[in-house]
């Protein structure tokens, strides 16, 4: 989730020409067609109108992703005839909770938003826009995946399918609310375009379960941590969206709990050595991605009064503790070696980004990148091989006897 190039296009109703982030700030309105860093958006925009709109999209490993999966395998996994571990009464209870729709009236804006946005100036303004764009893309990615799962599982398992549809309702709300936030900065993400133009990453169902469980829980811990921090330090409350995070994060928590129930219904994804290796792998990739991303955007976190690394470590530790309730193995993130290696990766990543900024020809850049990528890989491997923490759901043992037949 990091550097991406932008496809930007002014909305002709508001503006007939670029530039986009002009300093006569509030006269222009722009559709951002691809999630982007504000800097690259600004650079692309500076090149002017149509030329900017054709700028290539550069996806990296750290870019927020859109996912797709093997829907036939998903159908088989949720077929109650095939899978006797499916605890339908637990899913019925979860469905009732989703139907209650606690946040139906929560996402209502007021005039504070635009007023606050107008006061955000300078570099913080750009980084704020980027935060909104990236968050909106991530929420929208959840919406697309859950919506499709809701559609595809309708016949096989209507209860699970309806939960997915209701989760897609939540994510659409979140993405829409963030996109409205962008309108305070005279921008809008073109979500229809994003749906068609974005590359989709294919993950087998079991990987979708690990990855989405973690992203929901990490999302919960990020939102609640920011909310609590700003409640205690209201002088940093520079934009009202954070006031909504308390109820908002409960949606993410519920989504995570649903994936936890799904995983429990698929003991084969939790109960062997392969499951342990994959669990550690997904924990590592999610934590490292967040850490490297956030350390490239310290201005945002400092802008709201947080220390980026402390914030991230708190989120990682809490997410890891939550995850330990269900994953069969997690990383020893509280071991100081883990943070030491994360910080080393941040340094290497900075050097890697610096290579990209030089005026060297591509071949030279690539040659310079090789040892840095090797160094990143060796840090990752060392973290992966750190002695893990054996974990798992307390009530998981209840599923064991059912595996006999
Ligand atoms: Fe969400
Ligand atoms: Fe969610």
From TrEMBL:
GO terms for cellular component: chloroplast thylakoid membrane. Transmembrane segments: none annotated. Its cofactor is Fe cation. It catalyses: Mg-protoporphyrin IX 13-monomethyl ester + 3 NADPH + 3 O2 + 2 H(+) = 3,8-divinyl protochlorophyllide a + 3 NADP(+) + 5 H2O. InterPro entries: AcsF (IPR008434), Ferritin-like_SF (IPR009078), Rr_diiron-bd_dom (IPR003251). Its EC number is 1.14.13.81. Keywords: Chlorophyll biosynthesis, Iron, Metal-binding, NADP, Oxidoreductase, Photosynthesis. It comes from the Eukaryota. One of its GO terms (biological process) is photosynthesis. Residues 130-263 form the Rubrerythrin diiron-binding domain. GO terms for molecular function: magnesium-protoporphyrin IX monomethyl ester (oxidative) cyclase activity; metal ion binding. Pathway: Porphyrin-containing compound metabolism; chlorophyll biosynthesis. Belongs to the AcsF family. This is magnesium-protoporphyrin IX monomethyl ester (oxidative) cyclase. It comes from Gossypium aridum.
């Amino acid at each position: 989730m990091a550097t991406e190039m932008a496809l930007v296009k002014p909305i002709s109703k508001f503006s007939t020409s670029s530039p986009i982030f002009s300093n006569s700030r509030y006269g222009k309105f722009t559709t951002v067609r691809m999630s982007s860093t504000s800097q690259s958006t600004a650079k692309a925009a500076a090149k002017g109108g149509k030329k900017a709109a054709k700028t290539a999209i550069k996806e990296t490993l750290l870019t927020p992703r859109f996912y797709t999966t093997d829907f036939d395998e998903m159908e088989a996994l949720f077929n109650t005839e095939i899978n006797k571990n499916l605890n339908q009464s637990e899913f019925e209870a979860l469905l009732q909770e989703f139907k209650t729709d606690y946040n139906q009236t929560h996402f209502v804006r007021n005039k504070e938003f635009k007023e606050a946005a107008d006061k955000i100036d300078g570099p913080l303004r750009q980084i704020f826009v980027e935060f909104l764009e990236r968050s909106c893309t991530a929420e929208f990615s959840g919406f697309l995946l859950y919506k499709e799962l809701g559609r595809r599982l309708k016949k096989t398992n209507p209860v699970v399918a309806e939960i997915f549809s209701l989760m897609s309702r939540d994510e659409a709300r979140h993405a829409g609310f963030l996109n409205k936030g962008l309108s305070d900065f005279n921008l809008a993400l073109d979500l229809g375009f994003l749906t068609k133009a974005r590359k989709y990453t294919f993950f087998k169902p079991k990987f979708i379960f690990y990855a989405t469980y973690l992203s929901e829980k990490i999302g919960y811990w990020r939102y609640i941590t920011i909310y609590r921090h700003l409640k205690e330090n209201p002088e940093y409350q520079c934009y009202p969206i954070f006031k909504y995070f308390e109820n908002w994060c409960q949606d993410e928590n519920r989504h995570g709990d649903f994936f936890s129930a799904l995983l429990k219904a698929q003991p084969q994804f939790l109960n062997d050595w392969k499951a342990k290796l994959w669990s550690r792998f997904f924990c590592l990739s999610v934590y490292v991605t967040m850490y490297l991303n956030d350390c490239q955007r310290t201005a945002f976190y400092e802008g709201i009064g947080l220390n980026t690394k402390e914030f991230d470590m708190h989120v990682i530790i809490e997410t890891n503790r939550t995850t330990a309730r269900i994953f069969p193995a997690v990383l020893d993130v509280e071991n100081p070696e883990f943070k030491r290696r994360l910080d080393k990766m941040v340094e290497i990543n900075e050097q890697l980004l610096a290579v990209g900024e030089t005026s060297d020809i591509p071949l030279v850049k690539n040659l310079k990148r090789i040892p840095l990528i090797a160094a990143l890989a060796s840090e990752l491997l060392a973290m992966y091989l750190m002695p893990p923490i054996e974990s798992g759901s307390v009530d998981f043992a209840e599923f064991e006897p059912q595996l006999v037949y």
